[in-house]
Design goal:
- The longest helix is centred in the C-terminal third of the chain and has 54 residues, at 163-216.
- It is rod-shaped and about 130 Å long.
- A 5-stranded antiparallel sheet has the order 10-11-12-13-14, with no helix packed on it.
- The protein is α/β, with parallel strands linked by helices.
- It contains 8 helices and 14 strands.
């Protein structure tokens, strides 16, 4: 199950990584500078800020096909994209929808003027109105670089200072304690039940032991020297251990009851 992340901002990766500077021909052209994206990622991680990063596929293809000068290696760029789970998008509409749904700002120097004016459109994001784009434009946070070191023109609260997350842990801990307490009580009840069963078994074994002792030691009051073990079923359908000789001896309630075959019964001491 994927854990849901409470993002606090969005980073326009393509905007951050691109800088216009002079090329070998002396003309100013957009360069793709890997160190700028590295610095931006480190900035948010060092401040414990959950930042969702998007990167235009067009910028990625320009770097791969060398249509724009790449400062750094393609391996470094691809490694950044993979290790930080950066989402590749085909247009800014995907990034805008994420900002609207999560009510968070986009860190970028792009003012989305063509989107705001309606000049740029996309069928995939036709539900995002020009008013939505205007709100995104107003809430965006700019950035700047000094020798490829990233910084923002605004501030974003750290997730460590979020009171919502602290409050959410308390009921979870409480629920866990209640579950543990309930399990302990259940275990205690089962232990008591098992103890009662063991006591009952010990009592039964003691009775059987007494029975076998009576088998081994002839009763002084027995009228027979040869007793045959058997079972007797009473009128209620219950079976009883018996010894059959001249009279019938029935084991009941921990004692022998002798029944004369003539119909006279007496309790053996």
């Amino acid at each position: 199950m994927t854990e849901e992340i409470d993002y606090q901002c969005i980073l326009d990766g393509s905007n951050v990584i691109t800088k216009s500077q002079k090329g070998t021909d002396g003309k100013r052209t957009p360069h793709i500078i890997v160190a700028r994206l590295q610095s931006a990622i480190a900035y948010f991680k060092n401040r414990d800020i959950n930042c969702k990063i998007f990167f235009d596929d067009a910028t990625l293809q320009q770097a791969k096909k060398e249509k724009r000068p790449l400062v750094g290696s393609m391996e470094e760029l691809q490694s950044l994209l993979d290790e930080n789970e950066i989402e590749i998008i085909t247009n800014d509409g995907t990034m805008a929808r994420f900002a609207i749904e999560n009510e968070i700002p986009i860190v970028t120097n792009d003012q989305f003027k063509d989107w705001v004016s309606g000049k740029t459109t996309s069928k995939a994001t036709k539900d995002i109105t020009t008013d939505d784009w205007k709100k995104i434009q107003d809430q965006r946070i700019g950035h700047k670089f000094s020798k490829n070191k990233f910084s923002m023109s605004g501030t974003i609260p750290s997730k460590a200072k979020s009171s919502k997350k602290v409050e959410s842990k308390e009921p979870q801990q409480s629920n866990s304690l209640e579950k543990i307490r309930a399990r302990l009580e259940s275990l205690d009840d089962r232990t008591k039940n098992q103890t009662a069963k063991i006591d009952e078994m010990e009592s039964t074994l003691l009775n059987l032991s007494n029975l076998f002792e009576d088998f081994a030691i002839p009763s002084a009051k027995s009228n027979s020297s040869a007793l045959v073990p058997c079972k007797f079923e009473d009128e209620f359908g219950q079976s009883h251990l018996c010894l059959l000789g001249e009279n019938l001896h029935i084991w009941q309630d921990g004692k022998w009851i002798e029944i004369a075959l003539g119909g006279i019964a007496k309790l053996l001491d």
